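User: We ran a pulldown and think these components assemble together. Before we commit to crystallization trials, I'd like a predicted model of the whole complex to look at. Sequences follow.
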Amino acid sequence: MGKRAGILGVTGFAGRELLSIIGRHPGLELAFGASESYAGKPFSQVYPDPVDLTMVAPDKAPLAEADLVFLCTPHGASAQWAVKALDAGCQVVDLSADFRLRDLPTYERWYAPHPAPHLLPEAVYGLTELTRDAVRGARLVANPGCYPTSVLIPLQPLLSDGALDGAGIIVDSKSGTSGAGASPTTKTHFMSVHDNFSAYALGHAHRHVPEMEQELSAYAGAPVHVTFSPHLLPVARGILSTIYLHLAESWTAERVTALWRDAYRGEPFVQVMPSAEPPSLAHVVRSNRIAMSAGETGIPGQIVIVSVLDNLVKGASGQAVQNANLMLGFAETDGLL
Amino acid sequence: MGKRAGILGVTGFAGRELLSIIGRHPGLELAFGASESYAGKPFSQVYPDPVDLTMVAPDKAPLAEADLVFLCTPHGASAQWAVKALDAGCQVVDLSADFRLRDLPTYERWYAPHPAPHLLPEAVYGLTELTRDAVRGARLVANPGCYPTSVLIPLQPLLSDGALDGAGIIVDSKSGTSGAGASPTTKTHFMSVHDNFSAYALGHAHRHVPEMEQELSAYAGAPVHVTFSPHLLPVARGILSTIYLHLAESWTAERVTALWRDAYRGEPFVQVMPSAEPPSLAHVVRSNRIAMSAGETGIPGQIVIVSVLDNLVKGASGQAVQNANLMLGFAETDGLL
Amino acid sequence: MGKRAGILGVTGFAGRELLSIIGRHPGLELAFGASESYAGKPFSQVYPDPVDLTMVAPDKAPLAEADLVFLCTPHGASAQWAVKALDAGCQVVDLSADFRLRDLPTYERWYAPHPAPHLLPEAVYGLTELTRDAVRGARLVANPGCYPTSVLIPLQPLLSDGALDGAGIIVDSKSGTSGAGASPTTKTHFMSVHDNFSAYALGHAHRHVPEMEQELSAYAGAPVHVTFSPHLLPVARGILSTIYLHLAESWTAERVTALWRDAYRGEPFVQVMPSAEPPSLAHVVRSNRIAMSAGETGIPGQIVIVSVLDNLVKGASGQAVQNANLMLGFAETDGLL
Amino acid sequence: MGKRAGILGVTGFAGRELLSIIGRHPGLELAFGASESYAGKPFSQVYPDPVDLTMVAPDKAPLAEADLVFLCTPHGASAQWAVKALDAGCQVVDLSADFRLRDLPTYERWYAPHPAPHLLPEAVYGLTELTRDAVRGARLVANPGCYPTSVLIPLQPLLSDGALDGAGIIVDSKSGTSGAGASPTTKTHFMSVHDNFSAYALGHAHRHVPEMEQELSAYAGAPVHVTFSPHLLPVARGILSTIYLHLAESWTAERVTALWRDAYRGEPFVQVMPSAEPPSLAHVVRSNRIAMSAGETGIPGQIVIVSVLDNLVKGASGQAVQNANLMLGFAETDGLL
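Assistant: Here's a predicted model for the assembly, 1348 residues in total across the polymer chains.
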């Protein structure tokens, strides 16, 4: 008994990835793919994928024909589309930041006035492994950011366990260029990225900071500060986060690994690696998995964690389908293995 | 009045880069290029560079014809060649680790029994900007490691100033693949590196750790611990180090920048960038410069530094020639601008 | 009703790709994966793929447990394994060159003495779209070379139609680095391939030449000479062949396109593109499709064809499974969509 | 006795490369760098190069202060700037196509109405090795296209010798992405180019075709047709052209090589390689050299040539300075070795 999903903003990288996952999904069918700039044109004009789709203008998107809508629209726009889609009776998975921050002033400080603050209380933060039950019954799911997913999955068991000693966590993340979006700019020109590597939004300036701090503080039951430095890699896909934190002195890499194995036992998309074998991007690219390992630094209690995921899959569209699967009654792994 | 330099281990990436610099040098001429594996063969069989050189076996290298010898040989071998070259009356710049660590037990713990410990007291650590006077009169210079150069130049002014609050420094470094050496292995296969990114020797395991700790502790006048995580980038050349440290609360990024501008005023190879414009690899690749910027993290006194250099130039052969220029009486910038 | 397949030579790139396809296949299960160098070790020690496999030594491979064996062994070795596997009652798909050339002297001129010439008459050349019926009943299938597949599919309809005017065809091919094999050598070192591009085995020297000439001559019913120049691309996967040929003057790009659409109507893995939109590698990488387009050159009858495929899928393991599907009674597309 | 050069269109890749060459030139100094979009801004805002330059608006460019002006402006604009610069008493090297085609109707068929046809008779085609004497006395030099340079240097000695048998030449060229220009577009987005490879303007459609045919026909003394297929490589710089042609049957690769060695004896920027060692991009990138080799194809008289150059150096700004050196009385190699 199939379900139908629509995509708003289908020509970005997340929309493209959703199309590809839905194409492999045993129960989900495409209701529509909407694009502002390419309405009326075939998808093959934008990407070389063999997808047979003529895009519609967002205004003309037949929301009523979809059971669920994926919003791949920019923040601000997403909240407005969420209102319309919910009104049309659709469930919604929003891949933008519009419903990730529970605190309205925080959202408005980092982004802009919120177009639909009345929906904030209802929105469920869809980090599937950690909020599965809430996602299952949700009308509106806020799909987590790519960087936060790479940080929250490894840290939640530790912070919930009260292991963190002091509030400071340092996250040094490196992302592939698909994370910078499909718009052609000087920064995404091949000649700027290829054979190069750069840092940006260093320290505490990236918009994923408040999202990480919100969730980590909730895990820890106390405010947690995240020092965050993203970098741009000359690769297509993937995030590798190197995370430094201080735990009580009795914590070793081995104990962290054991805690993870326990916390994520049976999870199909969480791969705990041995200390000596930190995962590389190649471990996870084009999969919905996150892989992680813990190491030591010579300072008792200081732990260095490496986590990797594909920013377009577990960091965006894969997790979005994982959430949609729960919302629509499919097996959580449908379309994702 | 020209001088002549020989290169032992000319077919590695550092040797190749030296050849190229010497080719542009107004006063330095090549005495010989020695290679174990390619003796008797033309250099063009190894690299596509238009260099007219027939390599000699190391045993046959005419040491006596050289004023100075660059050792691009592996640690262990370098120390033995240093003895021979000094005996032959040459000055020596060693690009291996053999003379970087002043403490014999430390060397032997991280490497192997030292073949020439009697030379350790004489060897000068050639981080040119900081040890210029000692280099000028030296017979034997230990050329610094690539990662340490990227860390010591930005940190020396701060640590000498007593700014460091607590002993912990975190260095998250990313290096191009030339840093992994010219030997073909599974790890350096194009298919392993391309479109990938990985961490290795995490925490406190890389052999450049004791070198960094030795120098930083000397600057600070007290033991400094370095948590160090190197990563492998899918680019040819360049190191970007992201460095996290705690200073007294009164320190801001602006004050760090001002201190650097003062400390490195007039230095042709040190480029201090504004906080808001962290340098990328493209700022320094194929130059002998190191570029760096300081930023803040939202925690008073916590500073994040980004430094970049070309691992084969300022991180190896460029700095080696910078040192040789001083040793031989050339202008420090000869061949390097 | 499942079938079981074994892989000999599972740690090359073709073996790795087979593992991945078999993992998605609805009816095919892995009987064993054999490796000379890694016997007894887990596959995860060689590649980052999440495959749970302990490799066996080829000698210990339980051939009797497999319905079909894929030979990813080098030429020479493959023929010997084919004998053993057939004796054990397996069907065989050989991905090496051992059974591609029907003429023994030609094989021995380009390769070496043939270890099992008695099997040559039985072997079926498995260019699936063109030899489907013979593959269906075969015990032993010679899987075509990657370059030849990119040339034969576009040219067969033309040559069978007698369109070729004169015997000369020029094939200028560009292949990703996976085509150069998994052995680490100076040529496959990241530093040799990255940001570089080179030609090799120019003119008429590559071992895929006799394979192309054999098949093209059979299509044309007369000897066809192929001028062939392969090049090495700094990409992971994919072949793009630019093919120049002279047809009778009445042939236009449009007519070629129409002939192809007719010849390959309904073929799931052949994608005919319009003249104005030549396919790029991105059209086919990670798929079992070949895509192609025809254009004109200003000289009446001279046609330029661009064809693309993934050298590890349609050019090797994908086509191998396509053949195996027919041999074992599966749907031809099983595991490949 | 120094000279001063101005650059119009300094923020494109050719302008950037000119800046870098002039920075190394012993006698040439920068008079101004003009940019439409970045007037009043520092060059460091556009590129990470350590160049101290504030750009001027083209209208405000102090033409009178320059002895020579390099035009890195688009075709159409270049011709208009040439008029102004000549009027101001400057010599001019135009890197656009405006003065490459001697025949006005041909120019207007491939481009647009010509803004200054009266200058066509005076313009000298600056393929330096072949038109050295004319360049020396020229006021206005048309710098050749990147692809044509890679084709004309290897073919001129053969065609002048009457060796070509029949009019057809096939040129299969592959260019790095800097050749596609600095404007950010979907086609130059990192995600479109990286790990990809594509053909464009196939057959006879690229604007460099009439330039090649004009020169080759002049060498041969008869019309020569060029079938030309350019491709886009995922590398920063470099063109590799694989050229197929039929000579009289007595011609071998060895004889072609001998002819070249003779024709280009003593040329500092032409490197003739042995048949067995076709040059790769790495042989010439970041140099002003062109390297080339000849091979055979099994068909008597059919020759396959591989030529390589850096599209931004010998293919643009290097050759422009080589021409300017002659025009201004410098040594031809000044700034280029």
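The mean pLDDT of chain B is 97. That may be worth checking against your pulldown data before setting up trials.

User: Thanks, that helps.
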